[in-house]
Amino acid sequence: MINPQYHLGRRGFLQAAAAGVVAAGLPGAGQTVLANSGSGAGRAKSVIFVLMSGGLSQLDSLDPKPQAPPEIRGEFSTIQTTIPGVTISEHLPLTAQQADRWSIVRSMSHTEHNHLLATHVALTGRPTPVPRGASDLDRVQSRTDFPNMAAALDYVRPSRNGVPTGVSLPNYYIEGPLTWPGQYAGFLGPKHDPWQINQDPNSPNFKVDALSLQSGMTPQRLQFRRELLDQINHPVQLESDRPTNSFVQQQDVAFSLLTSAKVTSAFQIDQETAETRERYGRNAFGQSILLARRLVEAGVPVIQASMGIVQTWDTHVDNWGRLKNTLLPQVDRGLAALMDDLTASGLLDQTMVVVMSEFGRTPKVSNLAGESRPGRDHWAAVYSLLAAGAGVRGGQVIGQSDAIAAYPISRAWSPADLCTTVYNALGVSEDAHLMDPLGRPNALLNGVVIEPLYSGREG
User: Fold this and answer.
1) What are the tens digits of pLDDT across the range 40-59?
2) CA 143 to centroid of chain Cα atoms
3) Domain that holds residue 116
4) Which of 115, 120, 109 is nearest to 380 (CA)?
5) Which CATH number goes with the domain that contains 193?
6) Which of 40-54, 139-153, 255-269, 283-297 is the least confident region?
7) Is residue 23 located within the same domain as residue 143?
8) Cys-Cys link to 99, which of 35, 81, 219, 262 (CB 3.0-4.6 A)?
């Protein structure tokens, strides 16, 4: 069993290197890590990731090219935003009206065009640590994966108040035999896995059973059972590499959640007024965004809210029909309500919101064999995202793609840079390190802070 060590200080890191570890092989070696020099350092108490799994088309959303040929620009028109001279898709009217609150990043880029591996890159900032085979069945989630941001944060700064460090909702990314990597703690083990919700918050029967005590069970009785169980588990806890220990760790998490009134209340989404729920949209995505806001209010540091299954944004077929009729309107409405509420409550000052995919879509329109409704394929060379809150400057565009949104023509930003920016915003020290499965120390912050998010200056 892999027993990683985490959070080496500078001295510990140098001692490991002096003992024969090859530091030159670290991801991001040679880059300058600007962990705590960014003007957003430590501004965020919470981060909401809105993950559009499958790949949002940059051309049909945040980086349209109305002057490109029809086979590139697609079927949508554009709409003027509140940023002078900046347009986005006509099917994001509320986002256009709120553009003064958002930074639009149009030069995100990496090299992984496969859904599973790109998701690992997006959520961890790193490629998968061991080579994967040619088949998707060889690329599924593994305990050798790097931890995602919620898991890593839970290790370097574990929660001690019964509030989980990370919550993902409304579903786990699984399709048949395939489980997407990058969703959990990887080799850090189950203790640091984000808490996963697998229910539709829009359902009238939505209830997180794990937060409910059985009939007749009082908090006092639960605490007595906890103390008794601790006595039984004590010998197990002394042997950190025994398989049983992971179960003990999960018991600890379960007890913390059961005794957290904040978390219990946050999931009681029916406490919201009908008007508020309608503003977010009475669908799984809108209610997941509303629930994410409630989890921020409860003090959860990292919340990942998705729109549906892994193929939700994978628009190889009927790209414009799906975007126009379902995907973009639901996102537009949910995000607008979220930004209104975070702004009104003052929580936007301490909450970073990131809206992202694992990659974008191809500039050229195409048809899959046997399909009459055209779409776009996977494309990681350039794509777009939205960021707001916790010191991020609104009303700006960062980066630029070429005339057909195929490649960056300004500085490209990577998922490693995005992850570093998030860690920086959450106040994670630049000294945080982990030992990978091969025993090599890896800086947790392996990119650079996207400083223009805060300064508005690129260069």
Assistant:
1) 899 999 999 999 999 999 99
2) 19
3) 43-207+267-427
4) 109
5) 3.40.720.10
6) 255-269
7) no
8) 81
Is 233 part of any domain? yes
β-strands 178-179, 360-361: how paired?
unpaired
Q: What are phi and psi of 270, to 5 degrees?
A: -70, -5
My answer on whether 50 and 87 are in the same domain is yes
Q: State the total domains in the chain.
A: 3
Asked if 199 and 276 sit in the same domain, the reply is yes
Neighbouring C-alpha atoms within 13 Å toward the C-beta of 134: 0
* Cβ density class 339-365: b for 16+ within 10 Å, e for less: bbbbeeeebbebbbbbbbbbbbbbbeb
**Residues 198, 217 share a domain:** no
Give pLDDT, residue 220.
53
Taking 70 as the threshold, does the pLDDT of residue 424 lie above it?
A: yes
The strand pair at 166-169 and 302-306 is best described as: parallel
Is the pLDDT score of 458 beyond 90? no
Q: Does a structural domain hold residue 256?
A: no
Phi, psi angle pair for 192, to nearest 5°: -105, 5
CA count, 13 A, side-chain hemisphere, 397: 19
3-state secondary structure of 417: helix
Give the tens place of pLDDT for each residue, 2-13: 333 334 344 443
Yes or no: say if 418 and 450 are a contact pair by the CB < 8 Å rule.
yes
Average of per-residue pLDDT across 214-243 = 52
Half-sphere exposure of 56 (CA within 13 A, CB side): 26
Cis-peptide into 204, omega within 30 deg:
no
